[in-house]
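During the no-cost extension, the postdoctoral fellow (Dr. R.K.) reprocessed legacy sequence entries with the updated structure-token encoder. One reprocessed record is reproduced below for audit purposes.
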Amino acid sequence: MDYAIYKTNDGKNPRVIHRFTQEACNHKAKKAAKAKLLEMWQRVVRQGYAYGNNADGSKEDEFSYDYPTSTETKERIRFYIAKL
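Re-encoded structure tokens follow.
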């Protein structure tokens, strides 16, 4: 089965960020997707977006955080793994 990492802003308009096919990943697409998602999470933490901004995740399959769009507003960014 093929997998992808999706991104949503405030739960709307999910879009594919990365694709992982069994053919391209030597039949380990889900493992490759989890590794990429972890790498993305670490990048978010290093840049400071997740610090104090309601960051959370579950079971290595998703994470989300609040991203400030202005001084008064923010949007919820969510990345998750699902079937392609």
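The longest helix spans residues 29-47. The first strand starts at residue 3 and ends at 9. The remaining legacy entries will be reprocessed before the final report is submitted.
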